[in-house]
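Bench notes, bay 3.
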Amino acid sequence: MNNTFLWPVAFLLIITINPVYAALPDTLLVTDLSRDAVNELPKGWEQILPPKQHSLTSYTVEYTGTGPYIHTVSNSTGSWIEKKLNDLDVKTYPIMEWEWMVNSFPQVEWERDRKNDDFAIRVELVFDYKGGKNPLNMIKKGLITSLFRHYPPELVISYVWSEHVPVEEGYASPTTDRMIVIPIESDATTVRRWMHEKRDIRVDLKKYKPEENLVLKKIRIRTDTENSGTTADSGVRNIRLISENRR
């Protein structure tokens, strides 16, 4: 058989098998809850208990007439759930959309103060250098930070639903200089109503870390009331990352 005729077949096999050539989906559904059990932690998500915290915020799958969602309940707690995204390039998926709802807010006066830094619901993006804890990345981050501060992420963008702080430009978190807090909603009159959000995360990343070549490591869902010692109740669903082709 003439080997010339085998080359097109071999090339097609390479395109099919090699992930570099395989077509990427237009949308990545981060919260696919269609097969998750009620009252259980959503599959693929990990509960994280930060230092000095002793109790967990509740994150469970619930169902309504419009479908499943993640129900969050915090009672003087500040833990979160997170899902790994395997060094995702935001140039490939620059848009994030989601829906969220607040049933009750923590009892705080001004969330920009450290003692009032509690929110009914946060959707957070964790950015860092590609490749993890290799020596070059540790040097970039700083050896003291890497060795003695447990290698924190280079940047966390925290999209929040605030009760008091108006929707405005992002600000540095009062608890860490590695987090930018961006109020997306600020209105208690919309309580118990699902709100749809759309954000160009590539623009936000470029604004706050323009000089760094960072990748998206994880996404977090968080309801926290540990500073105020109060309670909060919220929901979030349909978090999805959308490619340039779908814009």
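Next record in the batch:
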Amino acid sequence: RNISQRQDYTGTITVDTDGTVRMSGTFTQLGTSTVYKWHSEKTVKTTQSSVQPASNPTTGGTYNLRGDWNHEGNGHKTKLVVAEQNGDKFSGTMHGNPLINGKINGNTVTFTRNISQRQDYTGTITVDTDGTVRMSGTFTQLGTSTVYKWHSEKVEKQKN
């Protein structure tokens, strides 16, 4: 099928204990504000994944997000700072504005940039085998139905 409309995908990769690789998420298509769901399963089993969600034992099974992040949202680069974290809840700043309602659930992260055009973020946390912690996903902005992409990388690597 020849599609001239760009499609932007975001999602989560999981590896079951039997090695089955599954991916699922959402995508948008240029020219429409509809958010579609997608999923895929790798039929050939694997025993390793180079990128896996991982827990941080210092925070009771929850990722340690505290610190500075290099953040890009809808093409705009800035610093995201997680200043406080208590278990699965966190807060900080982004673009110098309050970052509120931060929540971690498994490897899913949600937070809000508290500005007049409120921005609600949702995404996935991953930890590379070298300890690099990343978050990526989508966000919406008050007053528009557009779904924007974002990603962040923590400046300091996770120590196990």
